[in-house]
Amino acid sequence: MKFVIYGVGAIGGAIGAALSLSGAEVVGIARGARQAAIAERGLLLRTPDDARRARFPCVSDPAEIAFGPEDAILLTMKTQDTLAALMRLRSAGVTGQPIFCVQNGVSNEPLALRRFAEVHAVTVRMPTFVTAPDDVCAFSVPKHGICDIGRYPSGSNAHDDRLAEALRRADIGADVWPDVMAWKHGKLLFNLHNALEAILGRGVDCARLHACVRAEGEAVLRAAGIAWHPVESVDPRRDAMMRFRPIDGVSYDGGSTTQSLVRGAGSVETDYINGEIALLGRLHGVAAPLNGFLADLVADFAERRVRPGSLGNAELEARVAARGIALPA
């Protein structure tokens, strides 16, 4: 059994390197300079405590991999790249292998289930960052992060148990939940702040905007009859397993959306985070104008290669008001 990490970026790199260093068989799929560097030199996992280099094969396309029936495929790319990845997996002959959506949002699982029968959801909380083609930084101690795992749309099976056991051996907290999508919807609400961070910059006080974004999200999920676990406030595992510590010489710029803007990637996942709330609101007759506006604005930032922090809080609130969106006093 091997773990195929499709998208060896920040999250995929940290998970893949940790699994490999724990003794698991890992194969990565990456692009461009990242793929070439990992294939040649391996991947350096840097943590607050040490730095270790993991060495595992890394290819540019699933067609280069001989898939076994028990192999686990972990999708770790951004949602906007998921559909193309699924098509490449199908072309490579993947059929019954478990597909784990180790991604933000809740749109990846239904995309995968259209094409594959054995789909699993993974909520991932793991502060990571990439500073060079052959490295990945993981800032959490004593574990690299926490993963919640389960079969999509509900339940669990042996595939979930095997992945959880492997992650625990790799110093990643992991639990199996039959209601895993409640964890993913909780993480969806938590990630609504990512758009604000990307626009305003890390650490900027935007409590009023964030409260409105979150209230829209909760109202939409209630209207849709969707349950969620509030991952940021009532999970004791977070304090026990995930304490953020700096890494010497590394500046942590922020979450996944901010990192996409920093890299000038040209695309962001906001349409599947804030845009997911806008979509559900439209489907269930609940207004979510601020989330829709933020999805549009961050997409514009990405297209024009605008840096994070390019707007101030007052200017952003003025733009929100100009769209006729009322904020709480």
Outline the secondary-structure elements.
Layout: E1 3-6, H1 10-21, E2 26-29, H2 32-41, E3 43-46, E4 51-54, E5 58-59, E6 72-75, H3 82-91, E7 99-102, H4 108-113, E8 119-125, E9 128-129, E10 135-138, E11 140-142, E12 146-151, H5 158-169, E13 173-176, H6 180-191, H7 193-200, H8 207-224, H9 236-241, E14 242-244, H10 256-263, H11 274-284, H12 289-303, H13 313-322
Parallel strand pairs: 1-2, 1-6, 2-5, 3-10, 6-7, 7-8, 12-13
Antiparallel strand pairs: 3-4, 8-12, 9-10, 11-14
Helix pairs in contact: 7-10, 7-12, 8-11, 11-12
List descriptors:
329 residues, alpha/beta, Rossmann fold, N-(1-d-carboxylethyl)-l-norvaline Dehydrogenase, domain 2, 2 domains, eight-stranded mixed beta sheet, 13 helices
Offer a concise description of the structure.
By secondary structure, this protein is α/β, with parallel strands linked by helices. It is built from 13 helices and 14 strands.
